[in-house]
């Protein structure tokens, strides 16, 4: 696997440009979407990024050891009372999502010190995390009296930014504008990668860039303006020639022509999903289902043949000619020649899931920047 830090930085610059006048934060949860939180965060910091979001406290602690000066927000809130002092010591800013988060942050880990920095998450219709409108109003009133919390940021999350024309986007924006007004001292944040491309009022003070940084398509059905960051490749372990009527892999899918197979050292244990199999997978036998993923080798696309297994995947390389593929060659699974969103679609999923499922057996090369 090759991770191109210069492409990552180019993507950050493009998103920061599109975010203006808002600042652009980087979302580096789940080990920076599987790419490696340390090298990714260092490269983004060097490119001028100062605000970072993670999901879990442990990710925040890791990031703090990498970037002593960054503003680090933790999406999933406080994890019980013991976590509060760890947050304070590491200067992690919890995103308060519920009354329980608020009560903990008001009462624990702070020896009478005031006020406590935090972000407030208000729900605007996604019904995942976040305070209801009533809770947000009550909090704003209470806090105006006690001043216990110092909400640096009010945020909400959009449910449909990959579909710019979806009516939900504007409804959520209007709801957010009403709620963020309850906290006039705080900055505001609404847009994820797709939200940045909605532009205008969606940008607020701070955008939260995730998938687009890593090369994923921020908006469905449009050309992807981002540069690919990850190239995943597998080695050809064996080349076989079989006759029409013979079968391949688990489930014994029959081939209908004389076929040259490149057997490659990658499988679902590496996050190359079984649902991207070429044929014979019940998941995709429904009419109109996708036909499986393809790889890219020696200038051509070649389809996955039969079922993807734990450690091995078969590609049909017949169309390249008799001696085109040799043991030791590399096939691109996704990268500049094989867009990650296409592979994800073939597997019935999204680029986010492909990236965060990448297995530990890949050798990782970071290029285009210091690690
Ligand atoms: C993951 C996440 C993001 C980043 O979203 P992308 O679509 O990857 O840009 C932003 N905000 C919240 C609350 C998230 O959970």
UniProtKB/TrEMBL annotation:
A GO cellular component annotation in the UniProt record: cytosol
Modified residues (N6-(pyridoxal phosphate)lysine): 29
Reaction(s) this enzyme catalyzes, per UniProt: L-alanine = D-alanine
Single Gene Ontology MF annotation: pyridoxal phosphate binding
Keywords: Isomerase, Pyridoxal phosphate
InterPro entries: Ala_racemase (IPR000821), Ala_racemase/Decarboxylase_C (IPR009006), Ala_racemase_C (IPR011079), Ala_racemase_N (IPR001608), Ala_racemase_pyridoxalP-BS (IPR020622), PLP-binding_barrel (IPR029066)
Pathway annotation from the record: Amino-acid biosynthesis; D-alanine biosynthesis; D-alanine from L-alanine: step 1/1
Domain Alanine racemase C-terminal, first and last residues per copy: 229-367
Keyword Cytoplasm: no
The family this protein is said to belong to: Belongs to the alanine racemase family.
UniProt-recorded name of the protein: Alanine racemase
């Amino acid at each position: 696997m090759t991770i191109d830090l210069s492409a990552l930085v180019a993507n950050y610059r493009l998103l920061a440009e599109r975010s203006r006048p808002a600042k652009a934060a980087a979302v580096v949860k789940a080990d920076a979407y599987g790419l490696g939180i340390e090298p990714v965060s260092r490269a983004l910091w060097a490119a001028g990024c100062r605000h970072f979001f993670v999901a879990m406290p442990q990710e925040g602690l890791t990031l703090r050891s990498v970037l002593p000066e960054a503003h680090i927000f933790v999406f999933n809130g406080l994890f019980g009372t013991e976590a509060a002092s760890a947050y304070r010591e590491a200067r992690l800013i919890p995103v308060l999502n519920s009354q329980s988060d608020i009560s903990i942050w008001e009462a624990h880990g702070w020896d009478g010190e005031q006020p406590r920095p935090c972000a407030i998450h208000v729900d605007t219709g996604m019904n995942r995390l976040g305070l209801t409108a009533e809770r947000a109003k009550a909090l704003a009133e209470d806090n105006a009296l006690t001043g216990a919390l110092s909400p640096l940021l009010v945020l909400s999350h959009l449910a449909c930014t990959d579909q710019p024309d979806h009516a939900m986007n504007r409804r959520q924006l209007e709801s957010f504008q009403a709620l963020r007004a309850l906290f006039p001292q705080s900055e505001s944040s609404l847009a994820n990668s797709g939200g940045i491309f909605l532009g205008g009022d969606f940008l607020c003070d701070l955008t939260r860039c995730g998938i687009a940084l890593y090369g994923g398509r921020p908006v469905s059905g449009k050309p992807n303006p981002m540069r690919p960051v990850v190239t995943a490749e597998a080695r050809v372990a064996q080349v076989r020639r079989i006759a029409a009527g013979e079968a391949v892999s688990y489930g014994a899918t029959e081939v209908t022509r004389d076929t040259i197979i490149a057997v490659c050292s990658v499988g679902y244990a590496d996050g190359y999903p079984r649902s991207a199999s070429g044929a014979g997978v019940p998941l995709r036998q429904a009419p109109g289902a996708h036909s499986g993923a393809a790889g890219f080798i020696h200038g051509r696309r070649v389809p996955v043949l039969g079922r993807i297994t734990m450690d091995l995947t078969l590609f049909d390389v017949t169309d390249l000619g008799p001696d085109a593929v040799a043991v030791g060659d590399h096939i691109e699974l996704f990268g500049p020649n094989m867009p990650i969103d296409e592979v994800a679609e073939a597997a019935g999923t999204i680029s986010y899931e492909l990236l965060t499922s990448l297995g530990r057996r890949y050798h990782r090369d970071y290029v285009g920047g210091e690690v």
